[in-house]
């Protein structure tokens, strides 16, 4: 048994959860500004953009599942960690407009340029 696995899993999970809390805060601030502005924009994504979103979402979930599955010393907690990751990534990719617009699609455009 590797003694660093539980420590690293704690660090990874903490980063994921804290990032999700940051996303929720940013989305809350955006919604508050939208209420005071009186105008709201609606964005409809193309199939290409949504395909990119689904692909990276699937890769992120698969990576976390593999990381959790191969880690030792966390037996008995794997299902909870998988559920936490699933909730965090689902919120980030499908419910956080700030993440999609300011982070994800900005990175995708940058990668496509290079």
Outline of this structure?
The protein has about 110 residues and is mostly helical. About 80% of the residues lie in helices and about 0% in strands. It has helices at about 5-35, 45-70, 80-95, 95-114.
Key phrases:
0% strand, 114 residues, mainly alpha, 82% helix, membrane
Fraction in beta strands: under 5%
CA(first)-CA(last) distance? 42 Å
Helix content: over 70%
**Number of DSSP-assigned strands:** 0
Report on the structure:
- By secondary structure, this protein is an all-alpha fold.
- It has one domain (4-113).
- 82% of the residues lie in helices and 0% in strands.
- The chain is built from 4 helices and no strands.
- It has helices at residues 4-37, 47-70, 78-95, 97-113.
- Helix 1 runs parallel beside helix 3 (78-95).
- The longest helix is centred in the N-terminal third of the chain and has 34 residues, at 4-37.
- The chain is globular, with a radius of gyration of 17 Å.
- The N and C termini lie far apart (42 Å).
- Keywords: Membrane, Transmembrane, Transmembrane helix.
- The chain crosses the membrane at residues 6-25, 51-68, 80-108.
């Amino acid at each position: 048994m590797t003694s660093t696995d539980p420590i690293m899993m704690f660090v990874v999970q903490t980063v994921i959860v804290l990032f999700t809390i940051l996303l929720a805060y940013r989305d809350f601030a955006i919604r508050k500004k939208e209420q005071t502005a009186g105008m709201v924009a609606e964005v409809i994504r193309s199939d290409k953009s949504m395909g990119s979103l689904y692909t990276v979402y699937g890769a992120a979930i698969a990576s976390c599942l593999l990381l959790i599955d191969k880690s030792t010393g966390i037996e008995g907690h794997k299902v909870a960690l998988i559920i936490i990751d699933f909730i965090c990534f689902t919120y980030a990719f499908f419910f956080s407009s700030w993440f999609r617009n300011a982070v994800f699609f900005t990175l995708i455009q940058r990668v496509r340029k290079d």
